[in-house]
Each structure stands twice: as C-alpha cells, then as structure tokens.
Amino acid sequence: MSDLSPRQKDEISAVVREAIKVQLHAELDTIVLKTVSSILTTFGMNDDDRADMRDDFAYLRRWRKTSENISRGGWIAIMTVLVSGFASAIWLAAKTAILVVKGGG
Hints:
about 100 residues; mainly alpha
C-alpha cells in the first residue's frame, strides 16, 4: 500500500468515509424507527393504527382551529361592544352638551 500516490490514498479514504457514512445512516434509521415504534407501543398505539392516528390528529387540528376562531370571534365581539358603548357615551355627552347650550341661551 506504500506504492500508492497521495491522491490515490485520498480517493480511497473518501470512498471508505462515504461507505461508513452510508452504513451509519442506515443503522441510525433502524435505531430511530425501533425507538419511535417502542414509544408509540408504550402509549398504546400500534403500527396498524396509523390511519386512525392520522385521522385523530386531523380531528384535533380542526378542533384547535375552530377553538381559536371562536376565541378570536369572542374578542372581536367584546371589542365591538366596548367601542360601541364608548362611541354611544361620547354621542350622548355631545348631544346633552348641545341641548344644555341651546336651552341655556
């Protein structure tokens, strides 16, 4: 191996590094898959329940968005009532002030 040029050694090292990287990624994917499967099984979810879980998460997302919209609508209603009341109070005060000025003059 000593009769290899530095460039050939670098190429061999690059190929070996790439092969190791691919192998490590494959092993890591297997470990992650087993870990996630184990966690889901611990929570009582099987691999066969994926469609049901997806439907459940979609339902929860719709529920959350509906709740946010209702909350937003409630705040808009509260602000509308407050602004309307404030505008009505100003209008009533202005109308009273005009009547007092006319009545006193």
